[in-house]
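Service request form, structural biology core

Requester: graduate student, group of Dr. S.
Request type: structure prediction, single chain
Budget code: on file
Notes: please return the result as structure tokens.

Sequence provided:
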Amino acid sequence: MYVCICNAVTDSQIIEAQNNGHKTMSDIRRHLGVGNCCGRCVETAKEVIRQNSGVQKYMPKVFATDILQPA
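Core staff response, request fulfilled:
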């Protein structure tokens, strides 16, 4: 899938660059030119990077009913 139309960069190219050591959005921007023109691709590129990084944040939702109450 094309992520950056201005520079004809695909998600596969971003993943390949990431696997070759370009780990941050700044690295990817310098290496592939993603986000250097109109900038509409930046959020999608960040999402591709995040999904391929193997690190996802888990934000548990805590509700009052989830807290154990003494019997």
